[in-house]
Every structure is written in C-alpha cells, then in structure tokens.
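Entry 0007
Protein: DNA-processing protein DprA
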Amino acid sequence: MVEEGAYWLAWAQISGIGPVLLRRLQQHFGTLATAWKATKVQLGEVEGFGFQTLEKVVQQRSRLHPEQLFTKHQQENSHFWTPADADYPRLLLETPSPPPILYYRGEVELQENLGQKPMVGIVGTRQPSEYGIRWTRQISTALAKNGFTVVSGMAEGIDTESHIAAMKAGGRTIAVLGTGVDVIYPHKNRDLYKQILTAGLVVSEYPTKTPPDRKHFPRRNRIIAGLSRAILVMEAPLKSGALITATYANEFGRDVYALPGRLDDHPSQGCLKLLSQGASFILKELDELLTMLGAIPQIDAVEASIAPEQLMPTLSPELQTVMDAIASDALPFDFIVQQTGMAAGSVSGALLQLELMGFVSQLPGMRYQKS
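Output (structure tokens):
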C-alpha cells in the first residue's frame, strides 16, 4: 500500500496545484490517495479546479507513479515531512496553505512540532539601525532565556541578529529558508547556518539544491508566521517583506507586535503602520511582553489545568458523530468514514477540527485515535 505522504508529494509535482488546492483536495476526498483516483468530473467539483487545471491534472497524473516518486525523492532529500506525518508541525498544519513537503536539517525538537513549546517569529529590515539591532538582541535574548524558540528567515539584518542572540543566550532558533535547506543564502551567513544546525533547525518548502529566487522569499514568510504563535516586527520600511509576514500572521490568527520608532525614521514606517492598524506595542518593559507572550495558550497548557471530565465541550452533531466513531486504538480514515456514514470530505474536516481541539491525534498512514 502506498503511504498517504507519497500522494502529497505526487500532487505537488503537478503544475498549478499549490498548497491551498491541495488542502481543498484533502478536505473534499478525505485523502489525497482517493483524490488521485478521482475522475475529471469528480475533481471538477472541487473549488478552484477550472478547465485548465483539470487538463494539467489529466495530462501529468498519468506520467507520475507516487510510490516510485516518493522512493526517489527520499534518496535525494533525506529529511522531510508531509501533512500525513505525525511529526509535521501542528501550528503550520492549522493554516490554509501548509507546505505539502517541508524539508529540514538540524536538531528536531518534538515539543516544537506538537505546539507544546512556544515559538515566536522575529522579522524586520535587512538594513536595521543601531536602535533596531539593540532591541532585537535584547528581545531575542530574553525570549531564549525564558524558553521560547526564536523563528526567523536567516536574511541579513534583523533576522541574523535574532538568530545569533537567541543562540548566544543558550536558546533554540529555527531558520525558514527561501532556498533548499542545503543552500546557504546569503553566503556570508555560512557560519551562522552551521551554528543553527547544532542549536536548532533549518526548514524550507523547496527541495535540496534549489537556488535563491525572488519569488520564494515572500512565500516563505507564511511559514514563519505559521510556525509562530506571535510575530514581532522590529524595524520595517513600508515595502518590507516583514509586513508580508505580519499580514500572514493576522490571517492565521497570530498576535502581531511592532517596535515603535520616530515618525521621521525610514526603517520604522512599516512598524508605525502596523501599530496604527492594531498591532501591539513592544515597550521597554520586556517583562510585560514576556507575560503577554506567555499567556498565549499552548496546545497542552489548558489540558494540564482542567479536570478530564471538563475537557470535552458540547460538540456539534457532526463532530460528535465522528468522535463517537473513534476508539482509543488507531483507526484508518476509510473505516471512520464507513462507521459514520458521512461524506469523506465532511469526515476529514471534522477530524481536523477535533485534532486542533486536542481530542484526536493523527498517526502515520492517515490513522486516528482519541488523544
């Protein structure tokens, strides 16, 4: 039997099928394996599958063999996750456009992937002022010393300063690249890259040997926002990529903080714009910032303080039906669909909601069990 992860990889090879359409496919058919066998007419029922996209699917799907493709891909890219893997970062999986393949290098910490260790993104301009550098170092240091993982993009400027400060403080950091995980960009950060591999993780949605491309960097910003429970924008002009990250953070329901600056400082104009739009201020009293960030509920924090009988809220009839069909032992997705008598797409959506609520756990091979 071909694992579900192979189908995530296979679908991602078809031109015109991006992360959003892949998520819709999964929700509609229940599994991407089922979607792979769907007819042209059935695929046309999925939102976003227009005539041109359907033609590409028909033409390219016949030339792809998921199992062979997956085996070859593993040989060329030794470490990667798909949304079918239990280790795929939970917070990223919540977003509307999780990467179908997430490559990684470095030291994996399972608590981060499960959303049980707080991760905070720090972003900003590639040409920061002394003021921006000073506060980036102070905040990154404080976060690292208080158990937060610092997430950034390993670009020049604010990104670089946040990674270095977090590691100097003995903390972990994650770098999200716009290249393959084996391609160092900018090249001057080669020593930083090596340090991150020993004190954190490097991740990317692009396969090994992928060179820098201007289109890749705005897209990788959604991953920084998706991995993080909050985004801190330290210094950013009005056209900064950091504002793209903040936009994604707002869309994903993450908290956004901005460092205030003077009205006539060019590097601060983007931060001032964010503050005028409702972002929270980063103030001098860092204890207050740490308190606010620490107050963001972790996936397991609420569960630890509530009695078991209080954990289960009143569920909608659809969610309750799916919940009743799941046992403590892992059950395959198809069996759950059969037990509920519901459409595969409805079951898939219900399982995702139950998983985000912490009541259901997904295991490899599209198997589910009660948490």
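Curator remark: Confidence is low (pLDDT under 50) at residues 299-312. DSSP finds 20 helices and twelve strands in the chain.
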